[in-house]
Amino acid sequence: MELVGFVGGAGGAGYLNGRVGRRRIAVAVLDPRMPQVR
Which one-letter DSSP state was computed for residue 32? Predict the structure, then answer.
């Protein structure tokens, strides 16, 4: 059970991190005035 929870949590974190990363790249591309958007 713990292992399944750990894998599920890691997968969810990776999914959210991927979405945020793509959004950050999109913002950087769409707004060249803010290349250091975090």
Answer: T
SS3 at position 36: coil
Give pLDDT, residue 29: 67
Instruction: Count structural domains, the chain.
Output: 1
What's the domain range around 22? 1-38
Single-letter code of the amino acid located at 29 = V
Alpha-carbon distances of 24 from 3, 8, 15, 38, rounded to whole Å = 31, 24, 14, 7
State the chain's mean pLDDT as an integer.
Answer: 62
pTM, full prediction: 0.26
SS3 state of residue 13: helix
Note the pLDDT of residue 11: 63
